Request: fold
Amino acid sequence: VFESAERTAVPGVATGLAVTGAGGDVLFIEATAMDGESGLTLTGQLGDVMKESAQIAWSYLRSHGRQLGIDPSGLVGKRIHLHVPAGAVPKDGPSAGITMVTALASLASGRPVRPEFGMTGEVTLAGRVLPIGGVKQKLLAAHRAGLTEVIIPARNEPDLDDLPDEVRKALTIHVTGEVSEVLRLALRPAESETGAQPLVGAAA
Amino acid sequence: VFESAERTAVPGVATGLAVTGAGGDVLFIEATAMDGESGLTLTGQLGDVMKESAQIAWSYLRSHGRQLGIDPSGLVGKRIHLHVPAGAVPKDGPSAGITMVTALASLASGRPVRPEFGMTGEVTLAGRVLPIGGVKQKLLAAHRAGLTEVIIPARNEPDLDDLPDEVRKALTIHVTGEVSEVLRLALRPAESETGAQPLVGAAA
Amino acid sequence: VFESAERTAVPGVATGLAVTGAGGDVLFIEATAMDGESGLTLTGQLGDVMKESAQIAWSYLRSHGRQLGIDPSGLVGKRIHLHVPAGAVPKDGPSAGITMVTALASLASGRPVRPEFGMTGEVTLAGRVLPIGGVKQKLLAAHRAGLTEVIIPARNEPDLDDLPDEVRKALTIHVTGEVSEVLRLALRPAESETGAQPLVGAAA
Amino acid sequence: VFESAERTAVPGVATGLAVTGAGGDVLFIEATAMDGESGLTLTGQLGDVMKESAQIAWSYLRSHGRQLGIDPSGLVGKRIHLHVPAGAVPKDGPSAGITMVTALASLASGRPVRPEFGMTGEVTLAGRVLPIGGVKQKLLAAHRAGLTEVIIPARNEPDLDDLPDEVRKALTIHVTGEVSEVLRLALRPAESETGAQPLVGAAA
Amino acid sequence: VFESAERTAVPGVATGLAVTGAGGDVLFIEATAMDGESGLTLTGQLGDVMKESAQIAWSYLRSHGRQLGIDPSGLVGKRIHLHVPAGAVPKDGPSAGITMVTALASLASGRPVRPEFGMTGEVTLAGRVLPIGGVKQKLLAAHRAGLTEVIIPARNEPDLDDLPDEVRKALTIHVTGEVSEVLRLALRPAESETGAQPLVGAAA
Amino acid sequence: VFESAERTAVPGVATGLAVTGAGGDVLFIEATAMDGESGLTLTGQLGDVMKESAQIAWSYLRSHGRQLGIDPSGLVGKRIHLHVPAGAVPKDGPSAGITMVTALASLASGRPVRPEFGMTGEVTLAGRVLPIGGVKQKLLAAHRAGLTEVIIPARNEPDLDDLPDEVRKALTIHVTGEVSEVLRLALRPAESETGAQPLVGAAA
Ligand SMILES: [Ca+2]
Ligand SMILES: [Ca+2]
Ligand SMILES: [Ca+2]
Ligand SMILES: [Ca+2]
Ligand SMILES: [Ca+2]
Ligand SMILES: [Ca+2]
Ligand SMILES: [Ca+2]
Ligand SMILES: [Ca+2]
Ligand SMILES: [Ca+2]
Ligand SMILES: [Ca+2]
Ligand SMILES: [Ca+2]
Ligand SMILES: [Ca+2]
Reply:
């Protein structure tokens, strides 16, 4: 996870899995906050559906974050900017939803995302994780990129049958129907909880 | 009502009935509120007519809610976000109107929607329920999804003749011309009214 | 006037006459007011011309209402929502102008619109009533719907020659060039003026 | 000037001259002001050029009115609505510019426009009157409508050669290059200046 | 310079040079300021590039004016309206940039533009004057219009070879790469600097 | 570096490298700040991707500037205007990202950009420098324009093989994956750091 480790070293960056014309790929969701007019700035040539995903992710955290131990109040009244490189590549679809929630929750809590994790899944406003397409290509891409833990929607579990055995063995695959579970898995613990600087894990 | 029970367990989610290219289907309207610029955020690839339905639903509650025992004042001055999964599926038409009123009334009152209820009907700004299309496919879909109570517009009563007998028997079908009646049927009573935690009903 | 009586029972609803692909029809203009950002929300798939009619109607009342005994000040600083069901049917044209003024004047004054009245006519910002098309189809539709009083623009009086005798006899037809006259005819008197609850009239 | 006298009886209405597909025609510019968000509301299916004319007219009065004895301060901070009936007829072009200045100056000063006057001419932000097209058809229309005084741009004087003698004799034609001159000609004097209610003139 | 003298007699108007379908022409940039929401109103059917030129001109003056002795603070917080007659003629391109800076600087300083001057040149945000096209046609038009002094970008100096000798002799041609130089040339001195009313010069 | 030296003499201007239809070219990013509504004004006929680059650059500086010794607080609450001459030439693509960060950092810090530097590279919201296209044409253009130092993305290092030897020798080529490194290289030191006016270097 050389690239992922570098990219997710700071809070606010999460690793997603996407399908492109040329198979699967990893993408990074970068979030930052600054003083300015309250609201979301979205860049990365995002299509309508993906922009709506970002709105859903941000609304979910604002209305449910506190129940999950993610206090979003430090971000309220700020300008949130969410970018998905590469800047010239058009992107669309709902499957980055849980990655967007994770990036924003990381930013809000100051807890970095575990670099060995990649994830894909649509999120609803009530925090459900809905199924998405391209599971096989996405997990192959995760493996190629050196990731060792992936999160997919519970309803996509049947798609795992198509995965080559060696990839399946190399990856720890988490299936879940709730975005609260995604955050428990992918965010490093707060430093005060562990009393120690959390390690990046064996995959690093 | 396995999925519906899970999805409607929290206030702000109501179960609608829709017609898609592949017959009828159930859909969930999710509503949440947060601090922010007053107004509606609408996601789920909603078309013009469906976006107007959401505006009508919200205006109806703000101007008539108090007469119905639904105090909307806790939502005034907040950002209301209304989402209709699945995020990538375009949706349009006026028939989700009463479901939107119900989701917002549930959110405003803190009273969850009864999970055994599905509904369809256009709403007007004065609270009338106008007829919609696809009643047969919608009720078949409600039955398939395990719902046991449905609400349809009064003027759609003649469409019930086309419904197979076994479905007609399995469903309790409420016909009404007033959205105030929809709320009386579909919202669980406030806990203080019953002195007891309301049960989900025999269908659960 | 069964439907019209039900629909216009509350202040803020007026009955208009329209021409559709299938002949004439009655339509209802519903207006309501609520706290929120000052301005007009317009729904019902209204075209450009019809949206402008609503702006004209609202500006007319704000600048001339007081001269007519209609005090609009209770609506100033509020969000006015004006809806024209059915929500999925596109509508356009200027002929709903006087109906929109009437609905807003009813809302502002709390005086319901007389349910036996239907009306059609373009309104100008200075309060003139300009001629419209489709008078014959509109009056036939008014008659079919059980209305007994109609208001049309003065300059449309020649079109009455085309009307079948039995319809002409059944309807009381008011012709006028001034929207102030429309309001005098169509709004019920304020209760304080009559000392008695106004009756809906013989047609009810 | 039966129609013009009726229409211009109140301050804020001025009579313009236009060219339509069917020759020349008179049109009325109606202006009104109300409490609300500062700015211009423009209706009457106006095209881009005509909307810009309205902005120019309003900016001209705000920046130069006081020099001309027209104090615009009563309109500043108000919502100005400018409508050009008929509502469904698309209109465009710059030639209503001086008519718009006149309507707004009439509204600001409370001085009605003389009903026997019609006018046409583009206005610039510095108050120049620029030439327009269709002078012959416009003056024929003014004559047909019973107007007896018309204002045209100085640079259109050569177009008067094409006018039939009887029309030229019946009309008093004012040519000018300055919009300040238009206002001196077309607005009735303030009552306080004359000590007497100004008469409408021989044409009435 | 009969027309130019009349048009530029007041502060806020500058004479530009343009290329049209029918050769070169002079155009006037008119600027005015009024109370209202801070920002630019642009009229005259300006294209995207020309609207951006106006923004650049206004930003340049706000950030660099004071170094040039042009204090823009009287215009800050005001509505600036910039119009380019004739109102119905579409215009585009960057070559009016220095004329726009000059009109705005004239407005801000109260110093009228010298009426014998015409100018053309793109301006950058840092105050550079970039080359433009159509120099020959523009200078012929300046000469025809009676102007005697013109300003062109330094990098357009080679284009002067194409100019007829008699025009080249009749015009004083200033070439410059800095918009600060344009303002020094084209604005009349402040009255306080000269102790005397500045004359318009021999060309008047 | 004659032109570059002139153009970058003031803080807020940085030299980029672009590919056009006619090979590579240098372009200047000009940034300025003024009182006004907080936000970005972007001119120069920038396409969607390039406008997003500007937003990313500005958000990056606001959220990470202070760590880099670039205090953006003097620009917060101001209107930032970013222009890319020439005004009429459409431009797009992400490769001006690091040049935009540099221009804004120069403006915020008051430290001019070294005139002998040209640069190209996409920037991400977290400050990574991503690879771009056209390295060979861009470096040839830098050389032709007299620049002697260039910055390119680390991942573009392999493209340097295509560069003619004499150009490669004439240029000092910096490769980096971090925009913080770009700023360390390209901005002149603050005067207080050196105790002396920094020189422009041997290339001037
Ligand atoms: Ca789309
Ligand atoms: Ca996707
Ligand atoms: Ca539509
Ligand atoms: Ca539907
Ligand atoms: Ca239209
Ligand atoms: Ca109509
Ligand atoms: Ca146009
Ligand atoms: Ca015209
Ligand atoms: Ca363009
Ligand atoms: Ca030009
Ligand atoms: Ca694009
Ligand atoms: Ca590029």
About this structure: The two ends of chain E are 6 Å apart (CA to CA). Residues 194-204 of chain E have pLDDT under 50 and may be disordered. Chains E and A do not touch (no CB pair under 8 Å). Chain E is about 30% helix and 25% strand.
